[in-house]
Every structure is written in structure tokens, then in C-alpha cells.
Amino acid sequence: MHQYVSLIMAKNMHNVIGDYNNDIPWLKKPHYDVKADMAFFREMTLGSAVVMGGNTFRSFVKPLPNRLNIVVSQSLKSDLENNVLVCSGINQLVNTLSDIDTDIFVIGGASLAQQMLERELIDFAFISNINSDNTSNGIKLDTDLIENQLQFLQTKYYHGENGALSIDVYGEAGVNLPSSLSCKLKRLSQRLPLVKVDRNHGNYS
To answer: What is the mean pLDDT of each run of 10 residues along the chain (205 residues)?
Structure first.
């Protein structure tokens, strides 16, 4: 059974996903949409495999719980916690992912996302747009590459008291979201007031 690989990341209005100290800028001055994004990330990735680079892994206090943490790094030791696997490079990662029987999410950083997009290893992308312009200086996500490799599917808006968090969904042309991802989005719609928006026509549904 083919397991789909999804990119799931958050960026600000300048496409910044983090600063050069491995911190997330908008967490220093939290915005109303951050809580919704964290809930979205948690619901989508629980019980799945999360793939990340070494810097992203080191930015966590501990491995993400209730998930298989797969780290692409040449410097990390391989004998880490039980829920952590270390791959020395993309080729080993590809071999490792072929044995995974659950949803797979690439969570950062920008370099790993770029490598996997360029090698056409990403099937879907969920990009949260944090309504923050507090910095344009930092590590940026190549959104042009995402739009070149994948087809825009829809935008989901979380409606909060002070505005909305938009989440852009991309996928391979002609490929529907697998049932596992669709079910997670359905559960989210019950927890968070998320509605579909047609970007081309601006219609809510």
C-alpha cells in the first residue's frame, strides 16, 4: 500500500518559518491564530510518522510524543529514544519510509522540505499562514517550489475572535486526499470552526 507523504508547516506573511536561532518568531509574541495552528498540527500528526532535519529535532525539548520521529542528520546518534529513527541522508530516508505503514508528515526545516519537493517525494502539503509580519528576516519556505510541484486544492479558514488562520492545501494533480487525511480534517472541522474557501471564486462552502 502506497503511503502518502505530506508537508505540514507554518509560515508568516513573509514566508518565514523560523529565525536563525532555531526559534519560531511568532511564539515570542503569540498571535490568536497560533493556538489554532498548533491544534491543527497536533490532530494531523498524532499517531503518524514525522520527518524532520537535525536542527528541527534539536529545537524540541523532547521527541514529539505519540508519533514516530524520523530525523535526517549525519551528526545525531542513532541510539536515541524508542520513538526516534535517524537517517543519514535522503536515500536512507526513502528506504525507511517504504517500510512505514502510517501517514507521514515532513515538518521541517526548509532545506529538507526543498530537497524532498525537488525529488518529487511530497504528495500533499498543508501550509498554515500565520497572520504575523513581525519579521521578514529568517529561514524562508520556498512557496514557489510548492506551487510548481503541487496543485492548489483548497484553503481552510479557522475563524477566531480576531480574524482567521488560513491553511492552504496542495496535492498532486489528479490525486485525491487519502481517506486517513480526509478523516483527520473531518475531525478537525468538528473541533475547530474550519470552512472551505474557493480561492478562485472567494466562495465559502
So the answer is: 86 84 67 75 94 92 93 82 90 94 94 95 94 76 94 82 77 90 84 48 29
What is the Cβ-side half-sphere exposure of residue 34, based on CA atoms within 13 angstroms? 12
Is 49:98 a contact under the CB 8 Å cutoff?
Answer: no
Q: Round to whole Å and give the CA distance between 144 and 166.
A: 18
How many other C-beta atoms lie within 10 A of the C-beta of residue 157?
Answer: 18
Provide the phi-psi class of 111: left if phi over 0, else alpha when psi is between -120 and 50, else beta.
alpha
What angle, rounded to 10 degrees, do the helices at 179-191 and 32-45 form?
140
Radius of gyration of the chain (CA): 16
Q: Under a CB-based contact definition with an 8 Å cutoff, are residues 6 and 116 in contact?
A: no
Strand order in the sheet with 194-198: 84-87, 68-72, 49-53, 104-108, 5-11, 124-129, 163-171, 151-160, 194-198, 203-204
Residues near 197 by beta carbon (within 8 Å), at least 6 away in sequence = 154, 155, 156, 157, 166, 203, 204, 205
Cis peptide before 174 (omega within 30 of 0): no
- Give the chain's largest Cα–Cα span: 51
- What is the CA angle 58-61-67, rounded to 5? 85
Distance separating alpha carbons of residues 116 and 121, to the nearest angstrom: 5
